[in-house]
Amino acid sequence: MQYHEIGKTGMKVSSLGFGASSLGGVFHDLKEKQGIEAVFTAIESGINFIDVSPYYGYYKAETVLGKALKDIKRDKYYLSTKVGRYGENDKNTWDYSAKKVTASVYESMERLNVDYLDIINVHDIEFADLHQVVDETLPALVKLKEEGVVKHVGITDLQLENLKWVIDRVPEGTVESVLNFCHYCLCDDKLADFLDYFEQKGVGIVNASPLSMGLLTERGVPDWHPAPKSLIEACTRAAEYCKTKNFPIEKLAMQFSVSNDRIATTLFSTTNPENVKKNIDSINEPIDWDLVKEVRDIIGDQQRVSWSNT
Fold this sequence. Notes:
- Residues 16-298 form the NADP-dependent oxidoreductase domain.
- It comes from Prevotella herbatica.
- By secondary structure, the chain is an alpha/beta fold.
- It has one domain (3-302): TIM Barrel (Alpha-Beta Barrel).
- It has ten helices and twelve strands.
- The chain has helices spanning 32-44, 60-69, 98-112, 130-146, 160-167, 195-200, 229-244, 249-257, 273-283, 289-299, and strands spanning 3-5, 12-14, 16-19, 49-51, 78-83, 85-88, 91-94, 117-122, 150-156, 177-181, 204-208, 265-268.
- An eight-stranded parallel β-barrel has the order 3-4-5-8-9-10-11-12. It has a two-stranded antiparallel sheet with strand order 1-2. Strands 6-7 form a two-stranded antiparallel sheet.
- α1 packs parallel to α9, α2 (60-69) crosses α3 and α3 packs across α4 (130-146).
- The radius of gyration is 18 Å and the shape is globular.
- The chain starts with a strand and ends in an 11-residue tail after the last helix.
- The model has no long low-confidence stretch (mean pLDDT 94).
């Protein structure tokens, strides 16, 4: 396992990070005991960065993760969660007000069984009034940082342009990290265009969803996936091609997403301990760049096709 610093935070994190969304049953039905074991396996295998959100499973992911964390020494991991996006009874809700996000931080810490957070993120800012994020949400989180409740402050979004817009309008150092997903993977590497910008601003980069929420899998995408049909079909062809090479596209996708040392960590999510081990084994093997080129040629013009969050 390799380790990289997130921006200027001083946190040296594993190149693979554990995304805890699956602990909320977001992608598949959850077997809680197995999910907790997956967390233990990740930590024991050298993964030291965990990301979660109250939105995942409508608080369930934080609750399940908290059951695991109470049995893990706090100095064994860095913990990131989020504010702003929530949901109950299968309905999305958003609240980026200072009052709500402040209360949300303390509620998350209680569910997670911790007394501080390493990173607190404003979640999916494309759903917010970006002016409110700049003028109200981030100042509230900075206040919590000054009080020692959180160590660092970040923002997350699918749309890279939104991340840049916010960073350009707050005092330098306010945003210490960004979390962006589906933009540094085999079918879309748009994040690469923004690496210079984030580095110039001293902002660390967390990448997520190396399998592009199912696009880069033999199983294929869930019904709710927002990608256009043309991109889904192109990725299906790429997966079939990898199969003829006896090389699972999931393995190649994981290797590609951690191949750029300018990205501090890449998050993957699973409730299966064996998948944790398999992904770690995958990134420890050399990447076949010829196969990468062949796969990206198959996807071709569909790379970087714009699609929105859900």
